[in-house]
Specification:
heterodimer, A: 259 residues, alpha/beta, Rossmann fold, 4-stranded parallel sheet, 8 strands, B: 215 residues, Transcription Regulator spoIIAA, Pectate Lyase C-like, 2 domains, 6-stranded mixed sheet, 3 helices, binds adenosine-5'-diphosphate, binds magnesium ion
Chain lengths: 259, 215
């Protein structure tokens, strides 16, 4: 599951890029959008116009799982289970989510669950279905605070060892000392760093086009997501050069992959 | 002591003490309390309950709501505990039995709660006695103790030692950088951009002021 607490920090962007990255590496992947009422993973994937059934149709028995899964435009082995747009947030229960996750596990190598913001029902649903958690934050005090809360809740729910992605880092601001330092964030959250994604306008462009940046080899954020994908697959990959001062870069390189 | 996330019930010689998380939403408290009492009230039936909510003041409406909820579970709200000096109702939760000799040597004894994890944002620990945290206290988390608070890591959240008025209480941390620190009735905020002092420090009251010094 990809979660954050705070909204707008990059959960959906991360889900789309991770899912696409894993699919391009040959895995059979499903992206699950659990942000009921605020669905947008389908838009980011450029699949909005193919939606017939959604996750609520599946959990309520309106259709079979296979009918609701949408095949990706680029990859044969990548599917999307879209969120419902018109139904109530509470239309799916944790119990139903657990059943759905078990069914997905039979079919797929990876199920990437995009969470809604907050710590309410949608978050509890995602927890119910997940084996592993990725926490996304930006280098802002409020986002880190919410991430911390989320990590506490994940731990309380036996989802141990969540991993962290710090999104929207601006090297210039880090250099000037205007941005919360990555090592400050790691000091507080004290979980394994999965990756650092720079602020990059190619994310906005690719989001609007419905083509995740991970496939764009000229995109810096895409490069970061390619490395994150490889780390998820268990490879040891060095942190990309973020154009931040050497001292900080050295410390970060040591932190990556450290438990 | 029995507890849920935001409320705790403790039996003492003088009846029950109900601890209410001062940061929690009142409706949440009532819901949790109702459920908790539903599960355990039989056990306490007929007891008098005194409430403690740190520095939090409830409206008379809320207090009435609390009283009637307790009554529903056959418990009687008999008073509020607060920091001494705040009102006529005030009294210490426990009168520490001072061993004068031990005090002279700079020693204190009493019950202690050991917490073997980091307190993350949104968590609150309240304890009648000393609290030792083997981990960090993160921004957005709080520890309230009637005695001392020791953090074997970084204290970045809120700590309130001597919460029922003990001005001899102290707060110590390996890295003392709290959002806010309270001892008894004194409060300080962390100075912004303090040149991060290295090593363990202790905060205590000296001549009516909260001071911080190396251990
Ligand atoms: N690294 C980045 N650089 C630039 N824009 C980004 C980056 N990550 C996310 N965004 C933008 O921020 C907005 C919120 O991202 P999104 O993934 O939808 O957040 P969430 O799902 O957590 O609410 C989107 O408009 C997205 O394009
Ligand atoms: Mg989203």
């Amino acid at each position: 599951m990809v979660t954050s607490g705070k909204g707008g920090v990059g959960k959906t962007t991360t889900s789309a890029n991770l899912g696409t990255g894993l699919a391009s590496a040959g895995h059979k992947v499903v992206l699950v959008d659990t942000d009921i009422g605020l669905r947008n993973l389908d838009v980011v994937m450029g699949l909005e116009n193919r939606i017939v059934y959604d996750i609520v149709d599946v959990t309520s028995g309106n259709c079979r799982l296979k009918q609701a899964l949408i095949k990706d435009k680029r990859f044969e082995n990548l599917y999307l289970l879209p969120a419902a747009q018109t139904k109530d947030k509470t239309a799916v229960s944790p119990e139903q989510m657990r059943t759905l996750a078990a069914e997905l596990k039979e079919e797929f190598d990876f199920a990437v669950i995009d969470c809604p913001a907050g710590i309410e029902q949608g978050f509890r649903n995602a927890i119910a279905g997940a084996d592993r958690a990725v926490v996304v934050t930006t280098p802002e005090v409020s986002a880190v605070r919410d991430a911390d809360r989320i990590i506490g809740l994940l731990e309380a729910n036996e989802l141990r060892n969540p991993r962290l992605i710090i999104n929207r880092i601006r090297p210039q601001m880090v250099k000037r000392g205007d941005m919360m330092d990555i090592s400050d964030i790691l000091d507080i959250l004290a979980i394994e760093l999965l990756g650092v994604v720079p602020e990059d306008e190619s994310i906005v462009i690719s989001t609007n086009r419905g083509e995740p940046a991970v496939m764009d080899h000229s995109s810096k954020a895409g490069e970061a997501y390619r490395r994150i994908t490889r780390r998820i697959r268990g490879e040891e990959v060095p942190l990309m050069n973020l154009d931040v001062p050497d001292g900080l870069m050295d410390r970060l390189k040591r932190l990556i992959g450290m438990r | 002591m029995t507890r849920t996330e935001h409320v705790a019930l403790k039996g003492t010689r003088d009846g029950l003490i109900l601890y209410l998380d001062p940061t929690a939403d009142f409706d949440v408290l009532m819901k949790e309390l109702n459920q908790h009492l539903g599960e355990s009230a039989e056990f306490w039936r007929g007891a008098a309950v005194r409430c403690y909510a740190g520095g939090r003041e409830y409206s008379s409406e809320e207090k009435e709501g609390l009283a009637s909820l307790l009554q529903k579970h056959a418990l009687e709200l008999s008073g509020w505990l607060s920091v001494p000096g705040k009102g006529p109702e005030s009294q210490a939760v426990v009168a520490p039995e001072h061993d004068q000799h031990a005090q002279d040597e700079g020693q204190t004894e009493g019950k202690a709660l050991f917490v073997k994890r980091t307190l993350r944002s949104g968590t609150s620990i309240q304890f009648e006695g000393h609290v030792v945290i083997m981990g960090d206290v993160n921004p957005g988390a709080e520890v309230i103790a009637t005695g001392n608070i020791i953090v074997m890591g970084a204290l970045r959240g809120v700590a309130h030692a001597g919460a029922t008025g003990d001005r001899k209480a102290m707060v110590s941390a390996y890295n003392l950088a709290p959002t806010q620190l309270r001892i008894a009735d004194l409060v300080t905020r962390a100075p912004k951009d303090e040149a991060g002092s290295e090593g363990p420090e202790v905060a205590r009251i000296k001549d009516n002021h909260l001071i911080v010094e190396g251990v």
